[in-house]
Amino acid sequence: MRSEGSGVRIPPGAPSDAAPAAQLRRFLAPTGVPARRSPPQSTPMNPLMYDASVKVFQRSLTALDTILDKAGAHAAAKGFDVAVLLGARLAPDMFALTRQVQIACDTAKGAAARLAGVEIPKHEDTETTLPELKARIAKTLAFVGSVPAAAFAGSEDREVTLTLRKRTVQMRGATYLFEHALPNLFFHITTAYAILRH
Length: 198
Prior knowledge:
Layout: E1 2-4, E2 8-10, H1 21-28, H2 48-78, H3 83-86, H4 97-116, H5 130-146, E3 159-164, E4 167-172, H6 173-197
Antiparallel strand pairs: 1-2, 3-4
Helix pairs in contact: 2-4, 2-5, 2-6, 4-5, 4-6
């Protein structure tokens, strides 16, 4: 080791004090590890926003569907009406299981549509049975899967307008996905699971 100027110790063989920063980074980088690059942007051939939204929605809603199957099987095994579970909630001021499933579905289809710039399909909140809730998930998965990946190119910068209670807000697509849609989806699916485990 040798030191130069400020007392910083420099490994033997490192570039001299006037070496470009890029050379120093290459020297210090572990063998075989490429230098860090700026995150790529979404393009039709590289749909990052598609993978971060649609693929996650599909996995999450499929998991929710499986959770409902387990709830039905548990009710049948224990000999009670599964409707008891559909009306269950974690606290008196929280939504019941049925509403948690509906909101999770609405979050996924709304996000996919807004990011892709297509119309959001309307699904009436009329489900009262387990098969109807599973059909709601199936409809949502069918829509989400029908949106082409190419439609998400540039969606990280697409302006999204949301009506939240009595106010309207605008945000970039990336902000909407990562700070609103995904957290909300995960919250409602996790809450549905917690209701069934409570």
